[in-house]
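Note to self: keep these together.
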Amino acid sequence: MSAQRPEGFQLVARALSEAGHPHAPVFLDAAVRTSQEAADALGIEVGQIAKSVIFRRKSDDAAVLVVTSGDKRVDEKKVAAIVGAVGRADADFVKARTGFSIGGVAPVAHASEPVTLIDRELFRFGEIWAAAGHPNGVFKLDPKQLVELTGAPVADVVL
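Structure:
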């Protein structure tokens, strides 16, 4: 991996390599901060983007990562029913807990291990793409690999 790539991207690349993931992350020419931008850049459906949404659990201030399909909205009430009451996480909280900036939060290689839920809607697709630690970084996987990489349960967490 080139030392010229951003630290977050390199961190995700190492984590994927160490996990034996078959697809190295790709560094795109332009930042893809939204699911639509990522889908357009990759020439895929927006639902194939595995977007990472971070919440702050109210009981203990833990980061809660919900990985959902790019064409869905997370239902905070469904998330709360599984992990306890949650609130919005601001950019500083996201960076401190994950090590990544909003727009580049990967589902792996976090600074501190989040409570993670994977939305079942991702299983509509055989191939999905997730952020790789930087707004320009993405990596390919399938939903089963996402479960294997994160060890997270699959749940119904969307509206």
